[in-house]
Amino acid sequence: MESFASLPSPSSAFAAYASISASVMLVKTAFNQIIPYKVQDYVYSIMNSFFKNYKNKMTILIEEKDGMMINDLFQDAETYLCTKINPNIGCLKLSKCSKDSTFNIKLGRAEQIIDNHDGVMVVWNFFTDKKSENPSRPGYNDVEKRYFSLVFDKKHKDDVLSSYLPFVVQKAKDIMEKRRVIKLYTYATHPYSHDRLWDFVKLQHPSTFDTLAMDPGLKQKIMDDLDRFLRRREFYRKVGKAWKRGYLLYGPPGTGKSSLIAAIANYLKFDVYDLELSCIHNDSSLRRLLLRTSNRSILVIEDIDCSVKLPGRCGFDPIIGQVDTKKPEQQFTLCGLLNFIDGLWSSCGDERIIIFTTNHKEKLEPALLRPGRMDVHINMSYLTPGGFKVLASNYLDIHEHDHHHHPSQMKEIEELIKKAEVTPAEVAEELMKTDDAHVSLDGVVNFLKRKNIEKIENVGFKEGGECDLPELKKAKIDINSVEMKSDVEDALDQ
Ligand SMILES: Nc1ncnc2c1ncn2[C@@H]1O[C@H](COP(=O)(O)OP(=O)(O)OP(=O)(O)O)[C@@H](O)[C@H]1O
Ligand SMILES: [Mg+2]
């Protein structure tokens, strides 16, 4: 990147032109709001004659939004240009979150950057424009529009379109890949309007496929499925399907559904949009929000069975048992959601993953489970012996080749886990209680035995009869012996 100081004079004139044209655009937007059209035309005609020497220049405007959708090119340009910051820039926008190691840099309003690519000189300007959605109440419902203008010689039009801009896009992709910034979007109400917009924080969830305690075979299948999905751009095009994949994660609380979502996001380096259905009031706000999500992202709807009372297709709310009497524009319907999942709206993006979670798959509306909606159903089950090995390795540093140091405990845990219904979250909590691996494993054995007793008692209770007394007695003897052993060890410690 050449700096301003080292540029030969034609480029200074070029920069001056670009900067004046950016100012003109700023002035134009202000003018458009307050000056009558006839006066505007007069002013523009004077300006045009002033700049007639620069008629061989071309300007491309890159707006942040393309209609209702995010313009990826704007974001790529923003990412690329922060690597081109030079001492001549007067105003930068800096931000830093507590977990960031470096500053996030963006260009300030009306700033300019000159770039040179394969002998083609271009000038970037950044500017913003506040547009009032409600002219009778200035300041209320104001929406900020952000633009880049890209100015270059008309003769370089083909170079810019076919070589320079693809280069910018690729560079931005490389930068994002290196920075590994994954964003977690939730939505917030705009301060001056009732419109809800996405707001993000950096997703720094430590969960990965390595740390997930689940059956290794299932884990591998999920990773293979994700890899296949990413490779299949052409396939989706060929068969005429939108390039999206739906996953339904179901299982009891604490079995790792949210952890798996974070692991998928970290694996694919996709942003996550966390959609809270209970805050959506009607289908049009759902549509607006969904259209503002970017490609290569994961849309998450947690606890789909209880996050919202979804009225059925004909407005009948199965939960209240009545027809919903709200006006259609005030309704958020199952139809609206289904339309997005596999209707026309869903094809407005590429490389989209949609994940639903539920603790009660059996309570889900059958329409949601119909083939083609959620492509993969993943049962997040109670902890398995394979899953425990992952927890032991993560929490206690006991790896497979160390198991012979704790042979009886590991064997006992394996047997107990097969019988007891415990979640990875519960066992993880046990493993956090002490740093001593031996004591910790004893704690897990004890915990699993307790859970086993609870299970035997519950089964008897549920079936309305006696529980299996001999088995219960055996389980209780087992647990007493562990507690006694611990008491003796405690006494010895003192
Ligand atoms: N399979 C797992 N592997 C590793 N850790 C897990 C797993 N499941 C749960 N945990 C631990 O338990 C905590 C809670 O798990 P998580 O929030 O992923 O469960 P969940 O299935 O989403 O629960 P809920 O249904 O209540 O939302 C996690 O932060 C993690 O420490
Ligand atoms: Mg969860």
Could you provide a short overview of the structure?
Helices cover 43% and strands 19% of the residues. The protein has 494 residues and is an alpha/beta fold. It has three domains: 57-179, no CATH class; 197-379, Rossmann fold (3-Layer(aba) Sandwich), CATH 3.40.50.300; 385-493, no CATH class.
Description:
The chain has 494 residues and is an alpha/beta fold. It has three domains: 57-179, no CATH class; 197-379, Rossmann fold, CATH 3.40.50; 385-493, no CATH class. Helices cover 43% and strands 19% of the residues. It has helices at residues 9-34, 37-50, 72-81, 157-179, 216-231, 233-239, 257-268, 283-291, 334-342, 366-369, 385-396, 407-419, 424-431, 437-462, 469-493, and strands spanning 57-63, 65-66, 69-70, 92-95, 104-107, 112-117, 120-132, 142-153, 183-189, 196-202, 244-250, 271-274, 297-301, 316-317, 322-323, 352-358, 376-379. The protein has a seven-stranded mixed sheet with strand order 10-9-12-13-16-11-17, covered by helices on one side. Strand 2 and strand 3 (69-70) form a beta hairpin. Helix 3 crosses helix 4 and helix 12 runs parallel beside helix 14. The chain is elongated. The model is unreliable at 1-10, 311-323 and 480-494 (pLDDT under 50). The structure holds adenosine-5'-triphosphate (ATP) and magnesium ion. It catalyses: ATP + H2O = ADP + phosphate + H(+). Its cofactor is Mg(2+). This is AAA+ ATPase domain-containing protein. Keywords: Hydrolase, Magnesium. Residues 243-384 form the AAA+ ATPase domain.
